[in-house]
Amino acid sequence: MTDREAFFTVYHRSLPRQGPGHLESTARALFSIPTLVARPQVLDLACGAGAQTLDLARLLPDATITALDAHAPFLDELGLRAGAEGVADRIQIVEGDLAQPPDGPHDLIWCEGAAYFLGFERALEQWAPLLAPGGSIALTEPVWLSTDAPPRVRACWGAYPDLQPLSVRRAQVAAAGLALHADFVLPDRDWWELYYSPLEARVAALRAGAPPELSAVLDAAQEEIEVRRGWAGCYGYAFFVIGLPEEPR
Q1: CA-CA-CA-CA torsion sign (31, 183, 152, 220)
Q2: 235-243 and 179-185 strand pairing
Q3: At what angle do helices 3-11 and 197-206 cross, to 10 degrees?
Q4: pTM of the model as a whole
Q5: 168, part of any domain
Q6: Are residues 56 and 63 in contact, defined by beta-carbon separation less than 8 angstroms?
Q7: How confident is the model at residue 127 (pLDDT cuts 50, 70, 90)?
Q8: 226 belongs to a structural domain
Q9: Which of 17, 96, 122, 159 is geometrically suited to a Cys-Cys bond with 194, CB 3.0 to 4.6 A?
Q10: How crowded is residue 197: how many other Cβ atoms within 10 Å of its Cβ?
């Protein structure tokens, strides 16, 4: 088993979600957009197995959604789920890199739990030009909620050295010449109900007889869960809903 195979076996295969999130938070972000055209063209970047893609399809019954991810098994799972829910005709599934998204214009660019692979500022720089007039970007981004996170928490987030507080991200939206329509921190429910609780059950089920590569990923997953359990007040995911600046009248 390769490290990559071990990672996807533990973290993602057939889990309800691939990161923190919930239908209610997706809806809250969506309905924070001041205006959205009647039949929006939506681009869901790094869609994973498509939990939020399907939520968007339910919430926007007249939308056409392009769902992009680099991991083909996720897209296969999304295709099956979309077919079962009767929305496959409104979801175009594309294998690709979120750093090279399809050309616009898109009325809405969505990205839950993956913009940090690019970096927050780079994501805004690359995605804003792909928006249609009046279009919006909605993304989730990990943020510090405390200035005194202990070393164990900082080590857990060591792979993302650019973790910043909300105030910095808000300033970066303004510096990019964009409008911040809304932001909010995801509630703790979004971490546990569909992500960490199923993940912790999987970790326990895979422990017996796990090869070294898998054991290392299981240990890392359990550490991530324990850090969240002990220090949830130190960090979180924030939803940012961002739009193009208004045209001068």
Answers
A1: positive
A2: antiparallel
A3: 130
A4: 0.94
A5: yes
A6: yes
A7: very high
A8: no
A9: 17
A10: 13
Residue 249 has what pLDDT?
Answer: 44
Is the pLDDT confidence value at 237 over 80? yes
Say which CATH number the domain at 65 has: 3.40.50.150
Is residue 206 in a domain?
no
CA distance 149 to 191: 19
| Omega before residue 61 within 30° of 0, cis | no
pLDDT tens-digit series, residues 16-65: 898 999 999 999 999 999 999 999 999 999 999 999 999 999 999 999 99
Look up the domain containing 84 and give its range.
17-150+158-195+233-243
The tokens for 145 are 């909620």
- Read off the tokens for 147: 């200035």
Instruction: Enumerate residues 6+ apart whose C-beta is below 8 A from 82.
Output: 50, 53, 54, 57, 88, 91, 93
Name the region of 216 (left: φ>0; alpha: ψ -120 to 50; beta: rest).
Answer: alpha
In a domain, 204, yes or no: no
